[in-house]
User: Fold ParB-like N-terminal domain-containing protein from Pseudonocardia halophobica.
Amino acid sequence: MLLSLHPAALSFEPNVRTDAKLSREFIASVRERGVLQPVVAYPGADGLVVQMGQRRTLAAVECGLETVPVLLVDEPKDVDRVVDQIVENDQRAELSTSDRVKGWEQLAAIGLSAAAIAKRTGAKKADVATGLKVAGSELASRAGERFDFLTLDQAAAVAEFESEPDAVKAIVAAAKTGGFEHTVQRLRDHRAEADAFAAVRAELTGARVEVIERDALEWPAARLDNHRLDPAEHVGCPGHAAYVGYGFGTDRKAEAIFVCRDVVAHGHVEASAAPAGVKRAMTEEEKAARRVVIERNREWKSATVVRREWLRAFAARKAVPEGAERFVLACLLAGDHQIRQALEAGWPLLRELLGHEPDPTDRFRAGAGRVGQLLEILSAASPKRSTVLTVAAVLCAWEDRTGPHTWRNPSTDTARYLGQMQSWGYELSDVESLAVTGREPDTEDGSDTEDTSTGPRPPVPAGSVGSVD
Assistant:
């Protein structure tokens, strides 16, 4: 039944849209032409209740319209009401992240699973699951309401670090100004490192081993492995101690580094055998420089995770980016050594990013037999897709040979690689920018990097956008 009623006679029940977002353009349109599409309403306890058309009704009241068209329907079930509001609002002024999350939360409270919500609203199941995690965090929910620029993934990151106020500030600041992916990855790596360091310290404390700081290791204190001393046989020495650090090798896992507080006094080494130069302690400038190197290495490790996820998405795309052919030709004409190494190893990183199981021997023996996996993919690829895979192969060849040495030795070749990724939408972190330009990024306060020699530290927020408390 179609009625003509005064807009003020209509009432509202809970709506997934918490902010009606009545723009000047929308109000002007309603004032000029009225409400063209009927408001959908149903009988409630105290009169007609708006099911769909909240913005139209409010705009009509704002404009002082005497009547609006109202389509009278039966009272909907709660599930149908919320689903209809989500779908209808999405087809008009897009819901904010906070609004959409609240809608999914209402549906979950009614009893719908994430899969059912996704099916009823047309959303991705993964997005719904993420949204429900956000809804379960009071801090993330408040952040979504206060900072309407937060995406679903960014709000989820707030929920992930809700117990760490400084981390939350860094996430919100990065979401607003840039560098979000890098910031979150640094936070995750820091937390993982801190947990690993804490576990090793707890193990040492449980074994009644004195734990010292790495910077306290100055001659005649020394690492046992530097003097071929067995930690198990050294336990009874009065100088037995350890610090938490990283061992040698590619794994770089946190582990106990056993030391003797005085290898000379405890008879392990002759005083005359002291290494050259050990009498001089490091200056404050040298310590500061060492701390910067350690922190930059950590930043590069985190950036590598973000960079490879970007490459994974790049390798899956179908459209050829602008300048792709030129980039590949430049790398071939330059005779990039990295391409030859990838060719000899069977393109290990490319195969990994395309979903093949990584082979730990790829770096050490010929990989011609493995190229068959790539040829199978190529046989079914369109010309554009083939070009994308060609570019991805070159990028992966370069990426596979990057490491902390990359930022320490900026070069035009590195600038060509990372600069091309940047032109195709990849956001460089500070340490990657350093690898491209050779210049340290500017800091807000100009202060030195915090000591990270014996444990990780969280990233410093690039800026503050206020508390979400």
Q: What stands out?
A: Confidence is low (pLDDT under 50) at residues 362-366, 443-458, 460-464.
